[in-house]
């Protein structure tokens, strides 16, 4: 007895593996004197049940307490990063602040947007789980696929690491440590690449391999297009800003122009006049266009050609906008800007129409008024009419604003561009719910049709067997 706590002699914490039970002298004498073994067994179990809750309570924290600790940690960490970053910016020359912040957003904007997308994807998976949508079957995932909790854990680490690196970049530059500041985005990008391609079975190896394999299929569609292939390619079209900023960031890193005073020289090499910027913006749409052509080749469906036409309408938007840096201002104003506006309207309206009628299967908006939902996700997510109006209206508005971001000549207001890019990711987040539900309903209808055909064939065999038996 220690401090009033009785520890049973037979406790498994005091026995080695494979050893025999050790009984106290009192227990042994009582057994020899004819005391019932069942009484001792009952007393021993009572002692164990009395000690186990104490040990479990002492060793295990409450989930609510742990959650509160995490929230407090994030709030304190966010306050510290904001405080350090703001103080560091105020130390700079007023003439350099805007240029420096523009450079900082250029390097860290892609990873911040990716972090936002990962958080929202975790929310998507959580809704699918609550609605009993078998998303592993839709994407043909193995048993080791990431759950929404694991996705959120990965997003949490990204949320900590990326802003911390950004804060260190601003702090080091404002205090004169230019070389150390320049190393921050380089190290961060290198770490992200290493985590993705690390060939050892750690850091969710099967999921990383699945992701890289799907990217390979998107870039080189040498086989039949799966649902996961064009689903990820559609998400990449909403992250064209990430591709554009990645190209400029890597260009500056290669030319050793990170955190330097030579912004004008860097802009001449990796800036506004670079032809790589519109190419990076249009690249995800070209990937998706190529997939549609491959799908038409495999299936012969004319719908694939209409879908390819939709993605082709983004090409004039990007390149007509980029012409501003390569033609005279009068020619841009009188000729190319009206063409750019026209192509933007066509692209936005065509994309909006395809989202509603094809990807979501809300033809004629009939499902706004007919709530015959075949799956529980519909009741969980959008079982009310106002949700349909919100999603359709916001999708139209955000489709039009996303055209703003596709325009290369409108990218200098980095805060506005970042906001629009984040809103486009939010639009894609909404799109995913309806797109997955539509695909899941199609799979269920196909399975029901297959079951009906199997039942008919079984009944026919029974009738034939019955006739033969009668004969």
Task: Kindly list the characteristics that best describe this protein.
471 residues, mainly alpha, 18 helices, globular, disordered N terminus, EXS domain-containing protein
Q: In terms of per-residue confidence, which ranges show pLDDT below 50 for 5 or more consecutive residues?
A: 1-37, 364-377, 462-471
Task: Give the overall form.
Answer: globular
Approximate helicity band: over 70%
Integer average pLDDT: 78
Helical stretch count?
Answer: 18
Spatial extent as radius of gyration: 31 Å
Strand coverage percent: under 5%
Largest sheet: none
- Strands, count: 0
Protein name: EXS domain-containing protein
Subcellular location: Membrane
Keywords: Membrane, Transmembrane, Transmembrane helix
Membrane topology: Multi-pass membrane protein
Sum this structure up briefly:
The protein is an all-alpha fold.
Question: Could you characterize what this model shows?
Answer:
- With 471 residues, the chain is mainly alpha-helical.
- Helices cover 76% and strands 0% of the residues.
- The protein has 18 helices and no strands.
- Helix 4 (94-130) packs parallel to helix 18 (414-470).
- The longest helix is centred in the last third of the chain and has 57 residues, at 414-470.
- It is globular and about 65 Å long.
- It starts with 24 loop residues before the first helix and ends with a helix.
Chain-wise SSE layout:
Blueprint (H helix, E strand, L loop, with lengths): L24 H8 L4 H23 L3 H29 L2 H37 L4 H5 L8 H27 L3 H20 L7 H15 L7 H11 L2 H15 L8 H8 L5 H24 L2 H11 L1 H9 L6 H31 L16 H7 L2 H22 L7 H57 L1
Helix pairs in contact: 3-6, 4-6, 4-10, 4-18, 6-7, 8-9, 9-12, 10-12, 12-13, 12-14, 14-15, 15-17, 17-18
């Amino acid at each position: 007895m220690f401090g009033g706590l009785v520890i049973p002699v037979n406790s498994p914490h005091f026995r080695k593996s494979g050893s025999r039970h050790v009984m106290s002298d009192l227990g042994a004498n009582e057994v020899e004197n004819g005391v019932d073994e069942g009484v001792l067994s009952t007393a021993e179990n009572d002692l164990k049940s009395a000690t186990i809750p104490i040990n479990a309570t002492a060793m295990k924290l409450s989930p609510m307490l742990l959650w509160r600790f995490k929230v407090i940690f994030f709030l304190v960490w966010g306050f510290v990063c904001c405080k350090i970053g703001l103080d560091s910016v105020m130390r700079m020359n007023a003439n350099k602040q805007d240029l420096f912040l523009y450079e900082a957003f250029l390097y860290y904007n892609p990873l911040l947007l990716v972090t936002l997308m990962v958080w929202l994807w975790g929310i998507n998976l959580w809704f699918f789980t609550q609605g009993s949508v078998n998303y592993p079957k839709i994407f043909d995932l193995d048993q080791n696929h990431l759950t929404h909790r694991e996705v959120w854990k990965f997003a949490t680490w990204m949320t900590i690491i990326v802003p911390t690196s950004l804060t260190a970049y601003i702090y080091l530059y404002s205090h004169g440590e230019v070389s150390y500041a320049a190393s921050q985005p380089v190290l961060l990008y290198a770490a992200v690449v290493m985590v993705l391609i690390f060939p050892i079975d750690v850091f969710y190896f099967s999921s990383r391999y699945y992701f890289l394999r799907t990217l390979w299929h998107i870039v080189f569609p040498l086989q039949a297009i799966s649902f996961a292939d064009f689903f990820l390619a559609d998400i990449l079209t909403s992250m064209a800003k990430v591709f554009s900023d990645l190209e400029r960031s890597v260009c500056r890193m290669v030319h050793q122009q990170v955190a330097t005073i030579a912004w004008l020289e860097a802009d001449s090499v990796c800036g506004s006049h670079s032809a790589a910027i519109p190419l990076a913006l249009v690249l995800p749409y070209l990937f998706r266009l190529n997939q549609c052509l491959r799908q038409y080749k495999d299936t012969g469906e004319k719908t694939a050609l209409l879908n390819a036409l939709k993605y082709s309408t983004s090409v004039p938007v990007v390149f007509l906008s980029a012409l501003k840096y390569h033609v005279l201002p009068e020619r841009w104003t009188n000729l190319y800007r009206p063409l750019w506006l026209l192509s933007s309207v066509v692209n936005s309206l065509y994309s909006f129409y395809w989202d509603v009628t094809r990807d979501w299967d809300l033809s004629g908006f009939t499902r706004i008024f007919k709530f015959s939902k075949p799956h529980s996700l519909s009741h969980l997510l959008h079982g009310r009419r106002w949700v349909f109006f919100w999603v359709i209206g916001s999708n139209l508005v955000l489709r039009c604003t996303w055209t703003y971001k596709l325009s290369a000549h409108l990218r200098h207001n980095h805060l506005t561009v970042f906001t629009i890019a984040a809103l486009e990711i939010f639009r894609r987040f909404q799109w995913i719910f309806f797109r997955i539900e539509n695909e899941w309903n199609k799979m269920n209808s196909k399975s029901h049709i297959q079951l009906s055909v199997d039942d008919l064939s079984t009944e026919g065999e029974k009738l034939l067997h019955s006739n033969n038996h009668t004969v």
